């Protein structure tokens, strides 16, 4: 499924490097491999012998750094970067990260992936105390807390501040003398440490960015950990002992790139296994298995392998970005949909098709794809979803904060089947998902956050509590 | 394989519609599905009650028509459009099509996919006679011939002119009263006719564009045919009887979209069969089959199915366009390569991999991919190419006009294997390719042009003859 | 009067240099000083050791060559450039000059200032003979004629062609071996030859461009002359002996820059004298003389000097270009006018003002300025126009081709006075204008074209004859 | 003199309107007339029924609001705007105003013209207390002070804060319920209040902006005053009684538009009188008076009138913005200078010229202009400067903060004459300047700040004290 047609949006990717003479270029490459995590804007802050400079703007990374001179100007041996998720609304460059703060006594770059559950309370309280915020983003809060802290060192001020913010967060900071990564106490968001051949250290939201930058994986950042990297190497500290693994299961299902590993598990392999278990749980007689490109191809090949039914390319995604203006007629709007995804008549005509997708959010996209297949002549379309029904919102960094838009929160599976005009519909079971990913942490669901599926939130919801309860 | 990293360039795609109130929007959708055939520039000419207007520019279609107003300005019930192939050099907007010619006695829009083999002779001869050309493109030649012709009607002037141009060509013309498609006597390039629900006729380089515009396939344009579409319907005429099918085999192997049909054969299906026959011809023991995304995925799945070896996602292509500036160091250049294509360590580490690709041009890309796989831990990499070795240039519309750059023209298969550092290397046989595509025309190679592989050119080479012979 | 608010548009400026190592930069500087002659687009063609390259685009010169790299790419020791006049309509880059023609036997750059009176006939005749035009501009015609000519040398083909085109024209051509300037038989448009310190020759529409490029004036190009410049120096030839001076009087009145000399007469000095004679012809009692900036400041200071009435800055022109969107209300539209020109309350309040302007076209601008002055408190506004009433269109290069829009063609002076709400109104007499400029050629009106004022066109009107006669 | 060639930079212009249905459009018009006060960037914040929205960017106003949609989006009946001065350096959009601050309890827009002398101390002290700044601008400081204040109302918090900032400042604030203007205790910077026909109130840096928006002048904002405008009208309050007029004399000499009035004095009239007194103080025999366009034209016409020597247009300024790339040779650099300003050979050749300019900063520009005149044939060039020698820096809003660059701080008049290669050189006396402007306040120098000329700073210099003293 492509990010254009649905509303499940990741909240960003971060990348940083310490100890490389072309740090901002390495960061550019790393960010490019994380572009799927955010398309609204991008930025890089570099450390040139203690002086911090940055550039950020709205748009894809290749647009933000359209001219090489912009990148060349970001000299220095350390840099952090950020890609920000796409929103429908009118984005402002003020929200694009990394933020670069300059003080009389130093400068700090700050990038953030995640969502705080007590952001509103903290912001109001800080503003009452005279603080001025310059963006809508909850990322600034951490810097205000750090500047308010009376602890003696920057690291201690940071740790004190990390104990005050709640929710899901992966922070990456660049100071004049160090690069620092920090993860929330549940490890909701992925964050990995690696090392390049020349000894430089790399921090990235996904391991695919380590591969791209030629770095070797060292370890994942753990829950409640702070990793400080400077010219003397890296050291791991904890800002809290009150931790418990609850890794976002949607990273495995949909967000992360298939070539990334999270908690030691390869994402493609996990998805393929989701497809295999789905085939075992919900078999159906058919002529072919068709995956919805691109995110469902792994699951579809797993389904095909387990079922023995041949895998075919019955849907083709246009690799070029489509600009879809508001179209005056329904006919043109339908053609607009086909610009992005086409059914292959020569493959599906007259056939019984198993269409494998990774998830269903509102159901509108699934309905369109089923219809594309049927218009192209498919005799039957059996929809198999390689994850359980999405019934609950997320407050830790995924852009679904209301149950209203979730079709599975309001309809039975049979109702959904009817809505999307499929001949049959099945979802992977919760246990199937847990087994397919195969984590082994001593925590509920083996260390996964399954809240989207069962509402079992691993933390209090703070500022979201009341509206969430009202929505049930 | 992606167009960014190799030099096999298609020379354009054309699309036109007659009889639709939003003709230019339909053309925009159609062209978008042909964007893979050309990324250098795009344009549309529309017919607004006999008045022709156009817009064209350098860049992807979505960049050329960045503002909806540009499209909205192209009113009318008929339109033709064009996407032009990407070149390394400094393109000029003067070469972007469709060309729009305005005369005291009418206007004509002209778009062209192909390459003329007698362009240089015709141009010199026309210039000696006072003609002035305004582009480097050989497309203008047809219009000069038409204007010089003394035949009584436009169609007759066109037919006379078509007999003078040689090589591979698919023309699409828009006049004040008609849309006209014409194909060379060998049908080198694909061109199809379809009809929308409202009765509008559509002409497109590939049938995928018919699907996108919601049109039903009527027929392929045949060799030596002219199809005239106007308000009274369509009629098929021939400008020559001296025809013989020699459809470009590279369209099946690499250029066309998998969801297109050419001469009634689905491209994905043909590719999958190439993979199957390749598996039969050149089996090898291994742990997995990996396709080079995106164009080799069909062949790879065919190889996997036929061999019984599991198909895995061992290579991931970044779906976002990479801007690769000139990088100061070798290390950064290598990271630049990985921006586009990554090997999946979690999948290939410690495994014996069969890497399936569609073709080898210079060998540099294959070498890089083999090395990516090995760096990611692959124990063995067996390269299987789903087409025969490319040994000869093309003069009918593909951008390879010298043998020097073709690695297979100058090296044995064993030498190539060594060059690309593969553990083994095999190509599909010529007969395997012909069988996989399965045409049935009463012509050499069942109606395919196999000249890249065996130098058997279906036509005289005219202006290219001497340099070609010298290159042997 | 500023070019933004009226419709008297010059048809371009040309500049060329032969023999300077940075020819395109010298041309850039020269064109910049001719920018007042055309704002729609600009271009430069340079000759790099016999190879011609060019760049052109819509917009001001500084926009067209926004990046220095565009200029740096135009290497070579010779170059020609062009600025094109602003039109209200949607301009196309196809019309921006210099045109660069490439033939199998050479290349030619061509720039043109003027208007042909037999363009339509020539174009139709050429098209009937197979010629294809690529712009709406009449400039292309000359190149078609040259290519059709059977004369043995380029210069002879050019001369033959110059005898076929009629009207007002100043051509500048760049070939692989020479730069050539040519002027119409009436010398309607100005064109001057100069020489730089390093020996390089310069051709420019106005002498101000010679000054800017540090060149010394040698001579004006005369009527019916061709000047050929190459590495051996320059030589002057004639293509016709049937010549008679009829220099455009509007160049002196309005178009040319005050620091230019035309036919040896400084434009500022001529304008100041127009003001002086106007003061003598039409005195009036008042407190101050106010010129309409910028083109009327010379005439106003002449009026002040001759009348002894102090010259004051009662009107201020905003030096920044104003973007005036379509304004929703009348009030906002009026503010839009004031954005460009303001009356100075502190100067004019309670005073009797003599407002000096160079000309009146439609009368709407004059009316607005009178009202601005009255709203700012002026007690009386006496309008004095430093040229005779504009009653006839121009067919030699000025963008007024219908009498309908000319207020003086349809109203008496008293009617105009009432229309523009002035307290009194006078125009300079025709003889006053002739005396102020003070040419001394043996030709009607001492060598000026006075057709705007009296309809005495120095040449047949050819294609315009019938519509002109119908308009009388 | 044009802003391109010298380093006297005004620090901005402000404009605001309360009570007009198209407030942002009125602000756009008003700002356009203040564009001469700042070209680096521009912005507008509008109040749409209590909701504040803004747009700002680098570039001229017409570039910042290139698309009408940007302006149309700023709905509401009140708006404030700002133009920011041009710097050589790499500007950041973060410094472009108005700043728009959003708090849990409201929003505030803030624009500022001036310079604080205790900015550094205040900022450090605020940062020590936890404040985070987001720009380099000293404008943010006021907002931090307001938010820290414990006063009960916004106006009282503002007044308390205004007592803490020192130096020259004109603030314009927009809240959800009011527009507020405030001026420093010396009235260094101009600021005026006016009223439109529909009753809307307008605040502007110069009265020319009142004229453009069709508003009638009500009063200047006085030293130490706060003017609060809301739906009930306007009221004037004072935040301090410790005030004394010291209006920036450079506003009269150079910065302000000639059609503006400051403290009731028309700027053109004051400049003309400077020229008259200069003629009386420093007469010289010559053939003509030439003003340096555009800012010296008033003074030059005054000089001409008083001396009886004719005023001529001996220098012409190109009205189009020149883009001067780094030029490879000295010759090209000189041509670059001539792009902006040309001497008129036809006027000055063989003549004795009195060149009147408003001021001399470094002397390099004067030298160039003298040389332009001599190269164009002027026999003698007598330079007359319509203000006293600039010897001291400014800390109240003009961008000269070191004496090193001021030629008159380090050289005698005779030395400067030699440097600029003039035949004679005189400056207006200090008393001449005071008399020409003719203020009548009960304060030193009749209410003018003359510190540039005599170092008599009307306030302590705070953070600048030590570096200033060291520079003497």
From TrEMBL, chains A, B, C, D:
Pathway: Purine metabolism; IMP biosynthesis via de novo pathway; N(1)-(5-phospho-D-ribosyl)glycinamide from 5-phospho-alpha-D-ribose 1-diphosphate: step 1/2. This is Amidophosphoribosyltransferase. In the C-terminal section; belongs to the purine/pyrimidine phosphoribosyltransferase family. Its EC number is 2.4.2.14. The gene is purF. The active site is at residue 12. It is an enzyme of class 2 (transferase). One of its GO terms (molecular function) is amidophosphoribosyltransferase activity.
């Amino acid at each position: 499924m492509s990010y254009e047609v649905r509303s499940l949006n990741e909240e960003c990717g971060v990348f940083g490097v310490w100890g490389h003479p072309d740090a901002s270029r390495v960061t550019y490459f790393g960010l490019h491999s994380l572009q799927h995590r955010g398309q609204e804007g991008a930025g890089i802050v570099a450390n040139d012998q203690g002086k911090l400079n940055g550039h950020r703007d709205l748009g894809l990374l290749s647009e933000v750094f359209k001219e090489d001179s912009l990148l060349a100007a970001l000299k220095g041996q350390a840099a952090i970067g950020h890609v920000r998720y796409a929103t429908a609304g009118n984005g402002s460059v003020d929200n694009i990260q990394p933020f670069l703060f300059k003080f009389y006594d130093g400068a700090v770059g700050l990038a953030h992936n995640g969502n705080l559950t007590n952001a509103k309370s903290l912001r109001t309280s800080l503003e009452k105390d005279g603080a001025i915020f310059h963006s809508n983003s909850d990322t600034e809060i951490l810097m205000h807390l750090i500047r308010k802290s009376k602890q003696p060192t920057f690291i201690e001020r940071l740790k004190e501040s990390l104990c005050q913010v709640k929710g899901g967060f992966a922070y990456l900071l660049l100071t004049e003398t160090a690069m620092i990564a920090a993860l929330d106490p549940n490890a909701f968001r992925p964050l990995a440490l690696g090392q390049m051949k020349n000894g430089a250290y790399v921090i990235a939201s996904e391991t695919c960015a380590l591969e791209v930058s030629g770095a070797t994986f060292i370890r994942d950042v753990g829950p409640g950990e702070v990793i400080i990297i400077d010219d003397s190497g890296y050291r791991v500290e904890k800002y809290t002992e009150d931790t418990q693994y609850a890794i976002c299961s949607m990273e495995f299902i949909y967000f992360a790139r298939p070539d990334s590993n999270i908690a030691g598990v390869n994402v493609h392999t996990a998805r393929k296994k989701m497809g295999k278990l789905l085939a075992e749980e919900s078999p159906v007689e058919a002529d072919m298995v068709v995956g919805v490109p691109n995110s469902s191809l792994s699951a579809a090949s797993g389904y095909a392998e387990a079922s023995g039914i041949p895998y075919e390319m019955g849907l083709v995604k246009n690799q070029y970005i489509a600009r879809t203006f508001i179209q005056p007629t329904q006919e043109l709007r339908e053609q607009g949909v086909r610009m992005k995804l086409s059914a292959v008549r020569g493959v599906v005509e007259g056939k019984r098709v198993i269409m494998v997708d990774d998830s269903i959010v509102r159901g509108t996209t699934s309905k369109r794809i089923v219809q594309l297949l049927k218009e192209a002549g498919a005799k039957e379309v059996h929809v198999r979803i390689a994850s359980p029904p999405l019934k609950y919102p997320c407050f830790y960094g995924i852009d679904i904060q209301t149950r209203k838009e979730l079709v599975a929160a309001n309809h039975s599976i049979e109702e959904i089947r009817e809505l999307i005009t499929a001949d049959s519909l099945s979802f992977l079971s919760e246990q199937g998902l847990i087994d397919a990913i195969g984590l082994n942490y001593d925590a509920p669901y083996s260390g996964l956050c399954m809240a989207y599926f069962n509402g079992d939130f691993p933390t209090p919801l703070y500022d979201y509590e009341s509206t969430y309860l009202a929505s049930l």
